[in-house]
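hey so u asked for the seq, here:
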Amino acid sequence: MTGTRADRRAERAAVRADRSGSGPVLEERPSARFPGAAAKFALFGEVLMVGLLVVLVGVLVVTLPVALAAGIRHLGRYIAAEDSRLALFWRDVRAGLAGGSLLGLIVVVAAAVLAVDIMLARSGMLPGGVVIEAVGWTGLAALAVGLLIAAGAWDPQTGWSNAVRSVPSIVRDDVRGLVFYIAAVALVVILTWMLPPLLPAALGCAVLAVVAVPQRRRSR
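ran it, structure tokens below
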């Protein structure tokens, strides 16, 4: 009886350590949907690291799409307990750099045009300035959300064109999921505005959101 109680106490302690991330992942839980996310502290550290990698690769701004895409694929592999070596992250960066930089340039130009419209609307030089400013902010938000969705849909085999074309269908198939993408963009903007050094953490959380939304859609 004593041995049984001791075994039960040891089992409960192992489960608590597994869930908190302070101990090893239990071997008897291979069927978990996200085995790589079982260690919470380790996952948090990986999210922060991915955010730093996204900042590093996306520092030129036009390379932000490929930085996000590589980060999303890396974190997806990590959560699935697949091969998540950093070498694979850099391989994805190299594979998507050309097309991702072109997409990034298009996004930067479009964002610059919208920003100029907002500034002109605020200056009072344009009639209907309030409406133009609202359209400008809406356009910027749509660009950011679309970029996140396209980055999540990118695959080295199909390329960026297919990822961009798939954005409308992804939104149409899961309108509720759009709320999570919007929240992820808002999180990045708000945290960075409040404290710029939080940008890597905010981007890491946005990457995690992009990984989680499709999994949520498939589990329904």
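The longest helix spans residues 86-123. Confidence is low (pLDDT under 50) at residues 27-31.
lmk if thats what u needed
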